[in-house]
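Sample 3 of the quickstart, ligand zinc ion:
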Amino acid sequence: MPELPEVETIARGLNRKLRGRKITGLWTDWPKYFKRPSGEAAFRRHITAKKITGVSRRAKNIFIHLSDPLRPRSEASDHLLLVHQKMTGHLMVGKWKPFKEQKVGEVWAGQKWIPDPARGPLMDPMNRFIRLIFFLDNKEMLALSDLRRFAKVLCGPEEEILDSADIKKLGPEPLDEKFGYPKFRELFKNKKGRIKQVLMDQNFISGIGNIYADEILWLSKIHPQKSVEDLKEKDLRIIFKNTRFILKKALRLRGTSIDDYRDAEGRRGGYDKVRYVYQREDEPCPRCGTEIKRLKIGGRSAHFCPKCQKV
Ligand SMILES: [Zn+2]
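Result:
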């Protein structure tokens, strides 16, 4: 699943490409995305002719800010188009044309759209599961490739969406300038659980998932199953420092593309090549050479060095 560095990379790319554009229509082959407003027709009415004023991110959610250019600024209620890409979704901007049995590279059986022109990063096989397209006034398109169709897409007045329980209960943003060590330590007061699961809890701290939790804990020499009650002051300090370090590094490298993630132009991220332990089972630990082990914690895999990271 895309985590903070991946979602932030996409949001920045979308902001660059979409700001000032108008949405002219939509296409989907999966109307079940539309729960709010409910149904494809209502959703289409909600977004058509709206102007995109910017794109931002909160936790793993992408906010596409919309305004209605036909209404006076004072009356217009700004809308948010929220996309949570979930397991396999990623948003891209480009041009596609309906696929009609052309012989263009390797084609997936259900593929309905093909990049136009049929070359470049959009042709990456991970980008062909186009389920939803927003058409723009400059002939470009905003497309969601979503192999497993788990993405969440909703639209409504900005205040209502920001006020919804899902958004309000999210934990702090780890890269926020105002989020310093004292606030981080405060979060752990009376907190229970295993450190890896705690770091991945979006209502505890936002944006960290399986990849970066493994990386942060390896760099901090903390076992993923360690109970947070047993963490010392110096452990928390180092976890805090490494959380910021790893997330910033991954953001600079535009995320990790081991799984489905690609950026807003369909390109791979660069963190895969420098990762320490994530999905490196049986490879040597970059610090001590011991084989990296994999462990199941709460249904998810954790990768760690049994020598550097003792319980
Ligand atoms: Zn090691």
